[in-house]
Design a protein that fits this description.
about 80 residues; alpha+beta; two-stranded antiparallel sheet; two-stranded parallel sheet
Length: about 80
Amino acid sequence: MGRDKATTPVDGVPMATRTALTLRQAGCVDVRLVGRSSDLHLLGFPVIEEPEKEHHPLFGVAAVLRQTAADQVLFA
């Protein structure tokens, strides 16, 4: 895609914001964003940073699992 999908707008709203708000409306109370982009901090949700220099989708999963004590985690 050539750019961060999370901050790509859909009808003027970043994809990550749309997804996070949908999760909250569905009853998820602890919604966080995961990634390396500094722009994620501007979206109004807590951010878990991926520490790895290279990118792979599972690096975000690993970052969340290292930082949570939750029994259940939903990735969207």
